[in-house]
Amino acid sequence: MTIKQRTFYILRTAIKYVSLLIITFISILPTVSTVITAFKTKEEYGSTNVMTLPKSWTYLSNFVTAWKDANMGLAFRNTFIILVFVLLGSIMFGAMLAYILSRFKFKGNELIRNLFLFATLIPGIATQVTVYQIMHSLGFINTMHGYITLMMGTDVISIYIFIQFFENISLSIDESAIIDGCTYYGVFFKILFPLLKPAIITCMILKGVSTYNEYYMSNLYLQNKSKFVTVSTSLYTFTGPYGNQYNYICAGVIITILPALIIFILSQKQIYSGLTQGAVKG
Amino acid sequence: MGKINTTATKGTILHRLLKWLRSGKGQRTVIMISFMSIPLLLLIIFAYLPFLKMFEFSFYNMKYIGERKFIGFDNYRDVLTDKEVMNSLKLTLYYLLGSFVQLALALYYATMLSFKTKGGSFFKGTIFFPYLISGIAMGFMFRFFYTRGFVLDTVLSWLRFELENLPYWLRDKNVNNMALVATSVWKFMGQNMVLFIGAIMSVDRELYESASLDGANRWYQFRYIILPSIKTIVILNMILSITGSLSAFEPPYVITGGTRGTSTFFLLMHNMAHRHQKVGKASAMALILFGLILMVTIGQKLIFKYGFTDSNEDISQKTTRMLRKQRAKEGKQ
After folding, report:
1. Which of A6, A211, B205, B243 has a Cα at 20 to 30 A from B32?
2. What is the pLDDT of residues B100-119, one digit of tens each?
3. Residue A20: its pLDDT value, please?
């Protein structure tokens, strides 16, 4: 390498790592400042700058207060129940529909695919005006089963992930099973469904993240917060009387982020590949 | 006699039905009905029925409860001549600009992290993680972040900015929309980056190797190998950012509540429906938004149909051809 090339190389590497450090700083700054404040006592919060580190990293009383006041025990229990049923339902129904659409030729196949695609263009939150009326007439307001049913419906992305996946599974597997006397149900449940595992993991991640973080509809349809609070709506507790007591608020925020962080650290690779697959739908 | 006859025919009908059910065609029909009915029912109840009802509501002057009055296209006229609505549509431009900045940053960091980088997966993880934070948690975090003298102001004071010269980030109408757009860039940049990294990784590795053998520099690699192969996903994301900007909702909803000129079209519609209970007008707004989104989507389909038909294979072929030409040229020199 000539000297010129060498200086150029060093300069390029320097620019690379400096820009990476800048973006990392920006990415973690809001979260880090939240963590710092969550460990401060009330007096400390009032008297020190927000970026001054707390005196003690073992001062957990804010977390305890936030957990109790926002009823987070119940919130985590409810969110867990919702997650289990929503994931179960949307994966089962998504896989079943995808099986029919990818394996059976019939009039209306294309129409049904388009119906699902077209539905994604309807701005979701905008239709809540009329969805609310429908939920009301079904007696679904303030019920877990109502909210779960709503969240299960119309999950187009998972349907498309499953369709894509089915199209990569050879038809000869189905055919030989049918010849061996297997019914269509048998083919689906015993043979194809186990093969779907990677697609199921992808859908679980995508749907799991969106269900865990969903707050708009849970706020609208699970208004009875003393009974049906979820992890995200539990944070609404901090809007009223807490005003600017950010040491409690930050502790609450950290509690809700923590599970997402743990899952993320444990399954980074699956999350990335899930997102990439989910993006190339249609 | 008659009695025996009917049971006999009943028997045959039942018999025929059972026979049909056991036949291939019967089985097919049964599984099709049983597997499709629930998802289709959910789709109709929670997507199409509300949509049709919204269409109906948009022609009425109505609240959630009480009498309603048919007023024809008045709601639409009101929306399109409303000053606040026009102002909110202007805000769309801020969000659009923000999403282009976001895509550019995502492309920059994706290209960087697709090559060997020390601590690459750590950087990737920290840049991506904001995507997993819920909107409501983000609302609290950024209200705290932007408060006078708090996180942002402190960091800026480290950089020798004087507090008196800094604006109130969420109150000052000159900057508050940009401050909100920045939170959305913060959240979604990492997700875009991960998508781009996925696309770059799917390009044949040999292309990079042959290019670097030829002494191609990074810019050259980016311009002629990376960019062509991920063109489709970049353009798709650019178009999606138009619809995303039109339906921007979360940042103002959770951070400012739409005060001080930060109310986007979507938030205006939300307040119209739930705070002012003008259900008819809100429905008209929703349909106008739907019309805009539909137009953008049709445009997107047309672009992809007629604009360019390159598949990844074509690109790699093209690039190889181009590399070969370049090599030949250099040989001549």
Report:
1. A211
2. 999 999 999 998 888 888 88
3. 93
Q: Is the dihedral of CA A29, A34, A37, A39 positive or negative?
A: negative
Per-residue pLDDT tens over the stretch A44-81: 887 888 888 888 888 888 888 889 888 899 999 999 99
Q: Tell me the CA distances in angstroms from B63 to A100, A133, A139, B70, B139, one per residue in order.
A: 42, 12, 20, 12, 30
Q: How is chain A split into domains, by residue range?
A: 3-59, 62-279
Judged by a CB distance cut-off of 8 A, whether residue A88 touches chain B is no
pLDDT in tens, A8-38: 888 888 888 999 999 999 999 999 999 998 8
Of B285, B252, B267, the C-alpha closest to B138 is: B252
Fold classification of A62-279 (topology level): MetI-like fold (1.10.3720)
| DSSP 8-state class, residue A54 | P
Which of A12, A21, A130, A132 should be substituted to probe chain B, the one whose Cβ sees the most B Cβ atoms within 10 Å? A130
CB pairs under 8 A between A and B: 225
Q: How far is A143 from chain B (nearest CA, A)?
A: 16
> What distance in Å separates the CA atoms of residue B70 and residue B59, rounded to the nearest whole number?
6
Check CB contact under 8 Å for A122 and B53.
Answer: no
Of B47, B126, B195, the CB nearest to A154: B47
Return the domain boundaries, chain B. Answer: 2-57, 79-332
Residues B197-203, mean pLDDT to the nearest whole number: 81
Structure confidence by residue, pLDDT tens digits, B204-256? 677 766 666 566 667 777 777 778 777 878 887 887 788 788 888 888 888 88
With contact defined as beta carbons under 8 Å apart, do B291 and A126 qualify? no
B328, pLDDT greater than 80: no
CA B4 to chain A, closest CA, distance in angstroms equals 36
Domain B79-332 classified CATH 2.120.10.30? no
